[in-house]
């Protein structure tokens, strides 16, 4: 039986008079895929920033894999298995796809990328980078720089770099943002297939309701820093108050 990978209790973060996250509590099972939705300013990204350690909460607790990580640094949370990607792609633009993946793998293995410790360590890095590329569907663009590939492939590269850390929990902020309508379902198919192969739990912040309806099995709806809905998308997204909130500018 799978256990709880994440337990968030009474989490709060205020910025002056703005209650960005206001008493949020929820749990996640190992291997679960959780989508977070809500209008602009609902607190979605702030919640992800709190869980990943980019900012510290004013109050509340975050338990991850049975450990209290509420006050752990960003680096320490990466070390225990929490990783995230951003809405804006964060890659080395002057390097190829393979070089980007190799640096990410070498970083986790603590291998100096300018002067590899040994031929054996170089081979280990290269083999894992190629495996990541294959899992993410990037083998055909290995020798290209990020500026030379599609926005969808850039998103996949960013996520593959995150997965190079071999996290237990992956958080993705708007994985289809900036991706064309034609590409978005292909990108999500490949993203979720890769996450499944890695066995990682995932939290996905998403604005595109077509994507949410197609790929989610559980949805958290946030509004004004609070969770106003939690459950199966067919149940939650059919509620009148939730629909009224989600049919705002962010989902027009």
What does the model show?
It is a single chain. By secondary structure, this protein is α/β, with parallel strands linked by helices. It is 38% helix and 25% strand. It has helices at 44-52, 74-80, 97-109, 119-136, 151-163, 181-198, 209-215, 233-236, 240-246; strands at 4-15, 18-29, 33-37, 59-64, 67-68, 82-85, 169-173, 201-205, 219-223, 226-231. The strands form two sheets. Strands 6-7-8-3-9-10 form a six-stranded mixed beta sheet, sandwiched between helices. A four-stranded antiparallel beta sheet has the order 2-1-4-5, covered by helices on one side. Strand 7, helix 6 and strand 8 (201-205) form a beta-alpha-beta unit. The longest helix has 18 residues, at 119-136. The chain is globular and about 50 Å long. The N and C termini lie far apart (41 Å).
């Amino acid at each position: 039986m799978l256990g709880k990978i994440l337990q968030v209790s009474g989490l709060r973060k205020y910025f002056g008079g703005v209650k960005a996250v206001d008493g949020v509590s929820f749990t996640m099972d190992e291997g679960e895929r959780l989508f977070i939705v809500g209008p602009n300013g609902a607190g979605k990204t702030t919640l992800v920033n709190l869980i990943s350690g980019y900012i510290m909460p004013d109050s509340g607790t975050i338990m991850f894999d049975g450990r209290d990580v509420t006050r752990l640094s960003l680096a320490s949370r990466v070390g225990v298995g929490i990783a995230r990607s951003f809405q804006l792609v964060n890659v080395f633009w002057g390097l190829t796809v393979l070089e980007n993946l190799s640096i990410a793998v070498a970083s986790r293995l603590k291998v100096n990328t300018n002067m590899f410790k040994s031929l054996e360590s170089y081979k280990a890095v290269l083999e894992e980078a190629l495996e990541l590329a294959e899992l993410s569907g990037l083998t055909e663009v290995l020798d290209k720089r990020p500026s030379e590939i599609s926005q969808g492939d850039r998103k996949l590269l960013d996520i593959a770099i995150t997965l190079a850390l071999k996290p237990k929990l992956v958080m993705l902020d708007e994985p289809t943002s900036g991706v064309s309508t034609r590409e978005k379902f292909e990108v999500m198919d490949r993203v979720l297939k890769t996450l499944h192969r890695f066995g990682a739990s995932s939290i996905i912040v998403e604005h595109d309701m077509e994507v949410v309806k197609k790929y989610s099995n559980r949805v958290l709806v946030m509004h004004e820093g609070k969770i106003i809905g939690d459950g199966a998308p067919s149940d939650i997204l059919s509620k009148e108050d939730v629909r009224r909130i989600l049919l705002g500018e962010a989902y027009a």
